[in-house]
Structure formats: C-alpha cells, structure tokens
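User: Last request for today: this protein with adenosine-5'-diphosphate, please.
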Amino acid sequence: MSIEVKNLVKAFGEKKVIDDVSFKVNDGEILAIVGFSGSGKSTILKLISNLIEKDSGEIITSGGDIAFVFQYSALFDSLTVYDNIAFALHERRDLRKKYTEKQIREIVAEKLALVGLKGIENLYPSELSGGMQKRVSFARAIVTGPKVILYDEPTAGLDPIASTLIEDYILRLRNETGATSIVVTHQMSTIKRTADKVIMLYDGKIVFSGTPEELLKMDNDYTKQFVTASIEGPMKMVGA
Amino acid sequence: MALIRHILKQTVTYKLFKSILVNLVDFMEVMGNITTGLFEVIKAFFRGELEWKELINQCERFGISSLPITLSIVGMTCVIIVSQIAQEMVKQGGGNFVGALVAVLIVRELGVIMSGFAIISMIGSSLASELATMRVTEQIDALYTLKVNPYGYLFLPRVLAGMLMMPPVVIISSLFGILAGALTSDLAAGLSYRVYFDSIWIGIFAKDMFVCLAKAVCFGAVIALISCAFGFHASGGAKGVGIATTRAVVWSFVAIVIIDMLFAIAFFF
Ligand SMILES: Nc1ncnc2c1ncn2[C@@H]1O[C@H](COP(=O)(O)OP(=O)(O)O)[C@@H](O)[C@H]1O
Ligand SMILES: [Mg+2]
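Assistant: Here's the final one, the structure of the complex with adenosine-5'-diphosphate:
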C-alpha cells in the first residue's frame, strides 16, 4: 500500500510546522525522513496516522491499519509485555471476540520471535532495557498485520549494536510483511542501512529528496550541513 | 503607534481584562473537556465497551484502597464534633439528642462530603496523574493508533467504579463515624451507648438516606470524570502531570461542594 502526501500544511498557533509538503512512498518501500529536532518530523507521522488533524492538503492511504512505533516506546506500563502486545486483540472492538486466548498466545509469541525476543511475556515494560522496550513496541504495533508502519526515531538513544538490531528488524518486518514504512531518524547508520528514499525537512519544508547515496554525495548545502553535522550552513538550530 | 500599544499593555485595566479573558477561555475549555468526557462515556457504555475485569480493578481501587483514609477522616470528624458538643448538651439537658445530632450531621452532610474530600485526595489525584502520565508518555496516542477508544477503555470503568463504590464507601464510613461518636460521647460526657443509639433515628428519615446515596453516586461520578478529564488533556512532561493533578483536585473539590449545595437547595430548602 502506498502513501501519498500532497501539499500538507499544519500550523500550531501562528507557526507553520509543516508547510506545503508533498511526497510519495511506494508499496513496500522504506522512506527515511531526516532533519534536526523541531523540524516537524514527528508531526508528519502524527498527521499520517490521524493523531492530529491537518490544516490542509491531502494524505492518501488505501485504508487498512497504520502501525505507529513511538519514539519512547509508549508501552502501557501497567500491563505486562504479553498484554501490551495482545492489546489490540483484547481491546479493539472489531477484534475482541475474534481469537481465542490460545490463538492470541501463539500470535504474541510469533510477533515476539519476529523481533528476536522470547519468554518475556510476564515481565513489565519497566523491567526491560530500552532496546527491548523498542522491540516490544514493534511487536505491539504489528500485531494486527498493518500495511503501513511509521517509526518515530526508532534508534534514538540506543547503543550502536542495539541500533543495528533495530535496523535489521525494520528491514525484516518490511521483507516479511511487505509493509510500506516511514522511518523518522537523524542517525546516518539507520538511513544508510534501511532507507530506499530519503527526504530532509527544514523549517517545515522539504529541502532534499532522493536516495541515501544522493544524500551522501552532499551536492546541496542542506545535505552537506546535515551529513557533516556542521553548525555552519543554511539551517539554523533554534534554541539548541 | 507601537509605543502607545506598548504603554497601553502595561496598564492594570489591560492586564485585568486579559487575565479575565484568558481565565474565561480556560474555564470554557475545561467545561468542554468534562462535558465531552461525559457524553463519550455514556456513548461507550451503550456501545458495550465496558470491560468487567477493568471495572472490578477500578472498584477495588476506588472502594477498598481508599477505606483507611475515608474511615479515619469521617471517624475523626465525629470525634471532634462530639467532643465539642457532648458535654455541653448533657449539661443543658440535651444528652438524649447527642446521637440524633451526630446522625443528622453525618447522614445529611458530613459523611458524604468528608468521604468525597478523602476520595478526591486519594483516588482523584491518582486517576489524574495516571492518565496525565499516559498522555505525556504517548500511551494515549498509542491507544488511538491501536484503534482503542480511550473513553471506553480508560474513562468508562473509572467513572462507573466511582458511581458504584462511592455509596458503599459513604455508608461504611458514616456507620464508622456514628460508632466513633458513641465512643467519644461515652468518654467525653459519660453518655451511655443506649441513650446515644436510641436517639439516632429521631432525626433521620428515609429521604435523608436517599438524598445521601444520590449525592454519593453523583460525587463518585464527578470526581472520577473530572480527574480523568484533566489527566487526559494534560500536556508538557512531568510538570504537565503535576499541573493536571493539582487542577483536577481543585476542580473536584469545588464541584462537589457546588453539587452538595444544589442538593441542599433542591431537597431541604
Ligand atoms: N501539540 C503541539 N502543540 C504546539 N506545538 C507543537 C505541538 N507538537 C509539536 N509542536 C511544535 O512543532 C515543531 C515540530 O515538532 P516535531 O514534529 O515534534 O519535531 P521533530 O519530531 O522533527 O523533532 C516544534 O517546534 C514543536 O515545538
Ligand atoms: Mg520528534
């Protein structure tokens, strides 16, 4: 399932956080959205998943579930890992009576295996490491077999090995489920290893759009500044 | 022009009007949030979104974990009242009516309002901070992305638990208060238990008890609803959780006093 965004605009108060943004992600592709903090990356994901309302423009997805993997995992801390992953199957009105508890147990184990975890069903989120929480939140998001997966900074704050693992799971999920994915990140490794296409946001606008290789060529002032993580350049960090 | 505007903005009148306006807008927003909460809870209830397991959890939290506090507050209130009045009443020849006075006070007002205060400070604050934490850690966004209605999943069992558990909490704490009153009048004024308990039924009627229970149901619902609404609409990190919790407690206090007053006007004026 493809995602098409046309002339998207969103303002908070006076400030246009997303200012006329258009892009398209084809079926099964992984798009990376990069840009400094506050450039509106999370806002785009929240607009696509309908958590916030757009001011104008169009977001075209052909129905089906949209999974959202939150930046800080957003696991339900009063529920066990099992209940977190099974959450949609237990609580969603249209799925509530669809599966027996035995089937749900199998689905949960299968999703956990998909993110490389096993036997932690009875633990609580607070008993897991950051990387494990991330992976559990992947498992929770994909339990209903979504055709679109949105990742908000999936590797931020993780050590390099945990990041590599997460990147592998992003690829694996795409390969096994054929889902179309958008990955918000500012980590070069994540961009290089997972993305088919990259767009770069600054001040609510797209300032670069191309492949990871093109981003690394740095033939645009913005990409140059981003890749070299330089203070000098067209992008000003406000309040950093 | 800019200078004139700048000077105007420093005047007290401008600041006063601005603060009234800001507060008014804020007030309307809060009322809107609470009303929306109420309608969404009713809608979720009739769509059969209630989960029994969660209702039982919330009932336990509301009714059982709060008992030590409600019992001590209502009990101590009775001890205070009786120790202030019992001796004097016995002296004036009104010893026969100490029990009646305590019972009337407790059943008509103190039992339910003191329990309400105790529940707000214990349960209301915890409901508000729980939902506010869920909000600022994006757990509520996660609910939406998993297509689960937060009003059905979070609000409904909590509000219903408030309505169901507040009456038993009030009954138990009122009985406890009346007992504490008996003990105190014995100790403070040497009044016999028989005299005390004989007079209890002089002043209270079925109507009093009915109104008391109706108030309890309202208080339970209102405390849970207001606390959930403030938590649900929290924003801005740990500080936002604190702000939401404080405001939930303040609004709940004011709300139950207003409701109590409305009941008093409607039934006893
Ligand atoms: N709910 C909101 N209300 C007001 N401003 C917001 C809200 N959400 C985000 N913003 C503002 O929008 C801008 C972009 O935020 P965000 O999309 O989270 O950036 P990023 O994810 O790229 O770091 C920031 O300046 C932020 O302060
Ligand atoms: Mg972000």
